[in-house]
Specification:
268 residues; Metallo-beta-lactamase, Chain A; 7-stranded mixed β-sheet; 5-stranded mixed β-sheet; 6 helices; 12 strands
C-alpha cells in the first residue's frame, strides 16, 4: 500500500492564510422507500420516505477535496415510474459545468463506503484517498461482510495514493477542514467539520442520521455494523456541535437540501 506524500506537497506550497474554504453542494441522486423500519424508525413516526443524496466539493487554497460521490453512475438518467433510486445529472457532468475535471480533484474522502456515497468513486482514482484504517479493511479486504458495499464502484481506488487514518484528522493543517471519526454505521464512518468565514462552523453528518426524526428519537439503522459504537459516535458529534455552536446538516435530509443553494453557488 502506497502512502501519500501529495498532501504534504500541497501544504508546502507556502500559500499564506487568506480566505477560508468554499463549500459546493451537488444533487447526486434521490432514494425512495415504502418501508423505513430498517432505519430504526416505525413508518408511523415520520411521513418522510424520500432521501437526498449529496456530493460536496471543498475548495481550499491548498487543494480541492471531494466529500462523498453519490449514487452509482449507471443510475444516471430520467426517473422511471418504478425507480426507488434516481440520479439526473452525474457529479462528473456537474463538475465539468464548473470547469472542474476529475484530474483537478486533489483529495477524495467518503463518509463511508456504502453504495450511495461512493457511486462515482472510481472516476477519482487519480486523487489521494483519505480513509480510516477500519473502513479500508472493511471495504477492500472484507467487503463480503458488509452487504451494502459494492466493490466494483470503488475497486480502482485500491491503487490510489492514500492517507490511512486512525481517528480525527486535520486535512489541510489549519483546522478549517477536519475529518471527525464517528464509527458504527460502518467500521470507519466519519463526518466532516468545516470552518467557513461567513457560515461559521458546519458539520456534515455522513450517515450518523438519515432522517431528522432519527436525531430526535436517537434511533440508528438495524444494518449498522455496531449499534453501541454508533451511539457513542452520536454522543461525540452532538457534544462537538454544542461545543462549537455548529450548524449541522443531515446529508440525506431532503427538506434541508431543498433549502440549500446548489452548485455553482457556494457557502463560505
Amino acid at each position: 500500500m502506497k502512502n501519500c506524500c501529495a498532501l504534504l506537497m500541497l501544504l508546502s506550497l507556502g500559500l499564506s492564510a487568506q480566505a477560508g474554504p468554499k463549500l459546493y453542494v451537488f444533487d447526486c441522486g434521490h432514494l425512495s422507500f415504502d418501508n423505513i423500519s430498517f432505519f430504526g424508525l416505525d413508518n408511523s413516526e415520520t411521513p418522510v420516505r424520500e432521501l437526498f443524496v449529496p456530493c460536496y466539493l471543498i475548495e481550499h487554497e491548498a487543494g480541492r477535496l471531494l466529500w462523498d460521490a453519490g449514487l452509482p453512475l449507471d443510475m444516471v438518467g430520467p426517473r422511471t415510474e418504478e425507480a426507488t433510486g434516481w440520479y439526473e445529472v452525474s457529479i462528473v457532468d456537474q463538475l465539468e459545468g464548473m470547469d472542474v475535471s476529475p484530474s483537478d480533484i486533489d483529495l477524495v474522502s467518503f463518509s463511508h463506503f456504502h453504495y450511495d456515497h461512493v457511486g462515482a468513486a472510481n472516476v477519482f482514482s487519480n486523487s489521494t484517498l483519505l480513509i480510516q484504517q477500519t473502513e479500508y479493511e472493511a471495504a477492500f479486504e472484507h467487503p463480503e461482510t458488509n452487504p451494502v458495499f459494492r466493490p466494483a464502484l470503488y475497486d480502482q481506488l485500491n491503487d490510489s495514493e492514500k492517507v490511512i487514518l486512525d481517528g480525527d484528522h486535520d486535512i489541510f493543517g489549519d483546522g478549517s477542514v477536519m475529518i471527525i471519526s464517528a464509527p458504527g454505521h460502518t467500521p470507519g464512518h466519519q463526518v466532516l467539520k468545516l470552518e467557513l468565514d461567513n457560515l461559521g462552523t458546519l458539520i456534515l453528518s455522513g450517515d450518523l442520521y438519515h432522517f431528522a426524526m432519527s436525531r430526535v428519537l436517537g434511533r440508528v439503522p438495524t444494518f449498522n455494523t455496531d449499534r453501541d459504537q454508533s451511539l457513542q459516535s452520536i454522543a461525540k458529534v452532538e457534544a462537538l456541535i454544542e461545543e462549537t455552536d455548529a450548524t449541522f446538516w443531515i446529508e440525506h435530509n431532503l427538506e434541508l437540501a431543498n433549502s440549500l443553494n446548489l452548485a455553482p453557488s457556494f457557502y463560505d
